[in-house]
Design brief:
With about 675 residues, this protein is an alpha/beta fold. It has 22 helices and 25 strands.
C-alpha cells in the first residue's frame, strides 16, 4: 500500500516499506548523504540525511526512516541545517588531504596548475591552455613574467626543486599560438547589459573576458595607445615580447570586447557620463604614479620614477642614460629598471636597497640575472640626499644601515648606523620604491588615506551603486599582476551577479588543505630525484647588449619531462567528491572541533587499490559494496571508535586478480579515499 506525504511542498508517493530518502530521490527532491547507495543495505553512518517532520520531536534519518501518511517533511529548516553542518564539521575535523594541489591554492587567481601541468605531460597543449583560460586569458604573457607563488608552494621542492609551473604555462600557450588554431573564448547569448572597464591592463582584460563569457557587452577604455597596461608599459621586451601580448589581446578582441585607446578619463570622457551610459563600471586603472623618496634633490634633472623610465621604453622611446645609474628599491620594477639601464649602455649600475638580499621582494631569478649582467647591489644603504649642479644630478649620499627589530611585516627593520655614510657619483637615479594610484577624473568615489579606491573585499563595490573596482587601484595598492588578475576575476563574478539582480558576495571555496606540519621531506624520501629542466637562453654577455628575449622557451621534450615531475598532490576525485560539495554548500568551519588528527600510512588492497585512511569518513560503502554487490570479502572494518579503519581482510592472489578488474569500491567511495593505483 502506497503512502502519500509532502516534502518541501512537493507531494511524494512512497511505496510500501520505502524510506523517505528513496521516495524523495525518486520525486526529484535532493537530500544529502554520504553513506547511502541503493545497491547496499541501509547503514545510517554519516548523519547528513536528517530531515524534520512536523509533529515528530526528533530529526529523522531519511535513509532509514519510513514516512507516515500525511507527513509534512522539511529538508532545510534551521535545525536540520545545524545538524548537517555539525555532522560535516565533525567528519572534516579528522579529514586530512589535499582537495586541490598547493600550487593552485597559492595562486591568487586559483589557476588549476596541477591540471594544466598534467595535460602538458601527455601533449594536450590546447587543453592546457583551456584550463588556464578558466582562470584568466593571458597564459603566454603571465607565464613569462609571473613571480609564480604557485612554485613557492610546490611540494616537489621537498624532493629537490619546484616544478617550473610558470614556464610550462608559457610553453603550452606558445605552442597553441604558433599552431594558428588559437583558443577561442566562448560567450553566452547577449544579455542586453553593457559594462565599461576603465583600464586595459591584466585586471581589466581579465574582467572583460569573464563578463563577455556571460554575454555582456564590454568596452575597455585605456589612456595608453595600446592595451596591456603594465604588461606592455612596465615590463621590458626582453622579459615579455610585445608581439606575444598583442596575440593574446587579439583573442580577447575577437571575443567581442570593444577596445578604445588614447582615452583619458576626465579629459576625453567624463566619469559621470560612463556611469549613466553603462549598466556597470569597473575601475581597473592600476597604479601608475611612482612613490617619491622624500629626500633632498629628487627634483633634479636625471631623477625620475622607475615606472616612468620603463613606460618611455614601452611607448617606443629610447631614454638616454649616463654611464653611472642608481636604482632605488628592491622589487621587480627595480630589477626591470636596472637591467634596462644596462641594455641602454650604462657602464655602472647600482641597486640601492635598505635591507639585505634576503628581504628583497624581487624574484630570485631577477636578482641573479641582474648580478650576472654586472649590476652592483648595495645592500643596507638608504639615500639621504641626491645632489647636483646646474639642476642636473651628479651623485647621491647613502646612509649605511643595519637590521634592527622586526617591523609589522615581520621583516627586521633597517636602522641607521650612526656616522656611517657613503657617496657615489651618478648621472641618473631611478626611484622604484613603490607605485600608487592616480584617481584624478574619478569624481564621487570614496578613497582611502593612501589614495586608493575603497572597494568591498567581498563584492568589489564602491560607494557608488553601479561602480566596482579591482586590482592595484583598490584598498591595499599595488601588487603583482596575478593578484590583480585574481581580484578582477572575482569582481567580474560579482558584477555578473549584480547585472542579474543578485548581489552574491564572493567567498573563497572551502578546501581541505595539508599544513606544513603534515608534510615533510621524509614523506618523499623514496621519491626518485629528477632535476628541474634548465631553461635555455642567452648568455649574460650576449643578452645585456640588446632587448632580445632572455629565454628561448622549453623544447617539447623538456616540457613533457618537466611536467612529469608533478607529484599530483590534489585529490584525484575532487570533481566527484560529495564531501567537499556539501562542505561548501553548508559553509563549514571544522576548526570548531579541534583535537587529535590521524596521520596514517596508505593501505594497499589486493596490490591494485590504494586506500587513504585519513580521507576516509567510515561511511562503509567500500566494504559493503565489496560484500553485498561484488559478493567478496576482500576489505572490512577493523577496530571501533576513533581507531576504526578500513583494512584488507586477506591480501591474497585472488584479491589482486579480482580487484584489478572490479573497482566497485573505488566507484562507491564518496570522498576519494579509494583509488586504483594504475
Amino acid at each position: 500500500m502506497s503512502i502519500k506525504y509532502t516534502i518541501d511542498g512537493v507531494e511524494v508517493i512512497a511505496e510500501a516499506g520505502e524510506t523517505i530518502l528513496a521516495s524523495a530521490t525518486r520525486a526529484g527532491v535532493e537530500i544529502p548523504t554520504l553513506c547511502y547507495d541503493e545497491n547496499t543495505a541501509i547503514y545510517g553512518a554519516c548523519g547528513l540525511c536528517v530531515v524534520e517532520a512536523e509533529g515528530v520531536p526528533k530529526l529523522l534519518r531519511a535513509c532509514s526512516a519510513k514516512p507516515a501518511e500525511g507527513y509534512v517533511v522539511h529538508t532545510d529548516t534551521p535545525r536540520v541545517v545545524r545538524a548537517r553542518k555539525t555532522a560535516l564539521e565533525l567528519l572534516l575535523s579528522d579529514h586530512t588531504g589535499d582537495c586541490r594541489g598547493p600550487c593552485k591554492l597559492n595562486c591568487p587567481a586559483l589557476t588549476d596548475c596541477q591540471k594544466y601541468v598534467n595535460e602538458i605531460k601527455v601533449g594536450q597543449y590546447k587543453e592546457a591552455v583551456s584550463t588556464v583560460y578558466e582562470a584568466f586569458p593571458l597564459p603566454a604573457s603571465i607565464g613569462r613574467v609571473c613571480p609564480h607563488p604557485c612554485e613557492d608552494a610546490c611540494r616537489r621542492e621537498k624532493v629537490e626543486e619546484p616544478i617550473s609551473i610558470a614556464f610550462l604555462k608559457a610553453f603550452a600557450a606558445d605552442k597553441v599560438l604558433e599552431s594558428g588554431d588559437v583558443y577561442k573564448i566562448a560567450t553566452e547569448p547577449d544579455s542586453g547589459k553593457k559594462v565599461a572597464i576603465i583600464g586595459g591592463g591584466p585586471a581589466g582584460l581579465t574582467a572583460a573576458v569573464k563578463l563577455r563569457e556571460n554575454g555582456h557587452a564590454v568596452t575597455i577604455f585605456d589612456q595608453q595607445p595600446k592595451m596591456g597596461g603594465m604588461l606592455r608599459y612596465g615590463i621590458p621586451q626582453y622579459r615579455l615580447p610585445k608581439e606575444v601580448l598583442d596575440a593574446e589581446i587579439k583573442i580577447i578582441e575577437d571575443a567581442g570586447v570593444q577596445m578604445k585607446n588614447n582615452v583619458k578619463l576626465g579629459k576625453d570622457i567624463m566619469f559621470e557620463d560612463i556611469q549613466k551610459e553603462y549598466d556597470a563600471v569597473l575601475l581597473a586603472i592600476g597604479a601608475w604614479s611612482s612613490v617619491p623618496m622624500k629626500v633632498p634633490g629628487e627634483d633634479l634633472e636625471g631623477v625620475e620614477g622607475g615606472i616612468y623610465f620603463l613606460e618611455k621604453l614601452g611607448l617606443g622611446e629610447k631614454p638616454v642614460v649616463g654611464e653611472r645609474v642608481a636604482v632605488c628599491g628592491g622589487g621587480n620594477t627595480a630589477m626591470d629598471a636596472c637591467r634596462t639601464a644596462v641594455r641602454l649602455g650604462a657602464k655602472e649600475v647600482y641597486v640601492i636597497y635598505r635591507r639585505t638580499r634576503n628581504e628583497m621582494p624581487a624574484a630570485d631569478i631577477e636578482i641573479e640575472e641582474a648580478e650576472e649582467e654586472g649590476v652592483i647591489f648595495k645592500f643596507l644603504t638608504n639615500p639621504i640626499e641626491i645632489y647636483g649642479s646646474n639642476g642636473k644630478v651628479e651623485g647621491m649620499k647613502l646612509q649605511i644601515m643595519e637590521l634592527g627589530e622586526p617591523d609589522e611585516s615581520g621583516r627586521r627593520r633597517p636602522v641607521p648606523v650612526e656616522g656611517k655614510v657613503e657617496d657615489i657619483k651618478l648621472d641618473n637615479v631611478f626611484m622604484a620604491i613603490g607605485q600608487i594610484a592616480d584617481c584624478d577624473g574619478i569624481s564621487g568615489v570614496e578613497l582611502t588615506k593612501k589614495g586608493t579606491i575603497v572597494a568591498d573585499e567581498k563584492t568589489f563595490r564602491t560607494n557608488i551603486e553601479n561602480v566596482f573596482a579591482a586590482g592595484d587601484v583598490t584598498n591595499w595598492g599595488a601588487g603583482i599582476a596575478i593578484e590583480a588578475i585574481g581580484e578582477a576575476q572575482r569582481a567580474a563574478f560579482c558584477i555578473n551577479n549584480y547585472l542579474c539582480g543578485d548581489e552574491v558576495r564572493y567567498e573563497k571555496p572551502y578546501f581541505v588543505e595539508k599544513n606544513d606540519e603534515e608534510v615533510s621531506a621524509i614523506d618523499f624520501e623514496n621519491m626518485p630525484k629528477q632535476d628541474r629542466e634548465k631553461m635555455p637562453g642567452l648568455s649574460p654577455e650576449d643578452r645585456k647588449h640588446n632587448f632580445d628575449p632572455v629565454y628561448f622557451g622549453f623544447t617539447e621534450e623538456q616540457a613533457k619531462k618537466e611536467a612529469s615531475r608533478c607529484l599530483e598532490c590534489g585529490c584525484h576525485d575532487y570533481y566527484d567528491c560529495k564531501l567537499i560539495g556539501y562542505a561548501n554548500w553548508y559553509d563549514v568551519h571544522p576548526e570548531r572541533f579541534p583535537g587529535e588528527k590521524h596521520n596514517r600510512p596508505l593501505i594497499e588492497i589486493g596490490t591494485v587499490i590504494e586506500h587513504n585512511p585519513d580521507k576516509c569518513v567510515l561511511c562503509g560503502l567500500c566494504y559493503r559494496t565489496c560484500e553485498e554487490v561484488a559478493k567478496k570479502t576482500f576489505i572490512g572494518l577493523y577496530n571501533r571508535g576513533f581507531k576504526a579503519i578500513i583494512n584488507p581482510m586477506y591480501p591474497t592472489a585472488e584479491a589482486a586478480s579480482y580487484c584489478a578488474t572490479c573497482g566497485k569500491c573505488v566507484d562507491a567511495c564518496p570522498t576519494g579515499a579509494m583509488r586504483k593505483k594504475f
